[in-house]
Structure formats: structure tokens, C-alpha cells
Amino acid sequence: MKILIIHGPNLNLLEKRDKYIYGGTSLEGINRLLKQRAKELGMNVEIFQSNHEGEIIDKLQETLENEVSGVVINPGAFTHYSIAIRDAVEILKVPVIEVHLSNIYSREDFRSKSVIAPLCRGQISGFGISSYILALEALKLLDRNIDRR
């Protein structure tokens, strides 16, 4: 089971951002934890980060040609306005889970709207690094046919 994990803009600078909102773990630290948990779940993960909308779209489109069982995406600020990423997610034939480290609904008003979430299997936000871990576990459960609604 191969899972694509996409980190959007500014996530490469997590350790320099507001620790109260984003925690104190670097992106490299998050990626290490994701690889470890994926291995425990019998998954293989491909991890990608970009600050560029087009690169994220290209990576999502690659899943149409590659053997990918699911996608975990933290679109960062693109969450709130990228119709182009939304359209790329809409085309995918695998479950997509949107994640956020912070609870986007408890922050500024403009952050409480995701244009991408309605096309995802689900959204997990507000649990810090565990948002990503929970997304991996959800994809594993979906793969086991526990909940295929």
C-alpha cells in the first residue's frame, strides 16, 4: 500500500513559525514519524513538499499513472483558495484526506473555509502531528474495507 503525502507552502519552515499554532517539530521530524508509523502499518509513503501550486498539481496528477492507494494532503494556505488544486483532487480515483496541524476553524475567519475538503474522503485538523498519523490510520482502515461509504 503506497500513500502519497503532500505538504504545501511554508511547511518547510515549521520550526520557524508560531510554535503555539504549529508545534515545535520540523518538517523533517514529522516526515520521520510518518515513515515510522507507515512502516508499522505496512505502508510505503512518498513524501513531497512544495511552495508552488503547479508543482503540487503535477504531483497529484502523477497519481493517475502511479500505483498509489491514497493521498494525505496539507495544502497550507492553498486550502482556502486554490481551485486548481481542488480540480486536481477531484480527478483522483483514490481516497484523499486533507490534514492541518492547527484547528483551522478556531483561527482567522478566512481560514475556516476549505475549497478542497468537500472533494476529500475526510479532513483532520487541530491535532498537530497526530493529524497526519490519524490520516494514515484512516487510509489503512479504508483499505481494509471497514468503511467504504
From TrEMBL:
GO terms for molecular function: 3-dehydroquinate dehydratase activity. The keyword Repeat does not apply. It catalyses: 3-dehydroquinate = 3-dehydroshikimate + H2O. InterPro entries: DHquinase_II (IPR001874). Its EC number is 4.2.1.10. The active site is at residues 22, 100. The keyword ATP-binding does not apply. Substrate binds at residues 74, 80, 87, 101-102, 111. Pathway: Metabolic intermediate biosynthesis; chorismate biosynthesis; chorismate from D-erythrose 4-phosphate and phosphoenolpyruvate: step 3/7. The record marks 17 as: Transition state stabilizer. Keywords: Amino-acid biosynthesis, Aromatic amino acid biosynthesis, Lyase. Belongs to the type-II 3-dehydroquinase family. Homododecamer. Catalyzes a trans-dehydration via an enolate intermediate. This is 3-dehydroquinate dehydratase. It comes from Tissierella simiarum.
